[in-house]
Amino acid sequence: xxxxxxxxxxxxxxxxxxxxxxxxxxxxxxxxxxxxxxxxxxxxxxxxxxxxxxxxxxxxxxxxxxxxxxxxxxxxxxxxxxxxxxxxxxxxxxxxxxxxxxxxxxxxxxxxxxxxxxxxx
Length: 121
Known about the structure:
Blueprint lengths: L39 H5 L6 E5 L15 E5 L9 E6 L2 E6 L9 E10 L4
Antiparallel strand pairs: 1-2, 2-5, 3-4, 3-5
Organism: Lacinutrix venerupis
């Protein structure tokens, strides 16, 4: 009976690497400087499963410096504190209210406004 022989597998001689472009002229002085992109979800959102975005459709909240086309970042998991802005449901519509200690009526709070992204256009 013949002994099985081990055969070496030959590596392919084809080159699949992408050729780098040949540079002409001087390179940019900023090629060594690389700034990572800012991910606004990482910076502005603490609890992603309970954070929502609402775009304001009119100028009815100018008293709170919230204008048309601003984006509200709202966290429903936070408990509102004194002097914070919240989104509340009043008369079957969303409304913005500033929480203070001497609120005398029952309020259905939908979430706490954590950031307001202003529209400049």
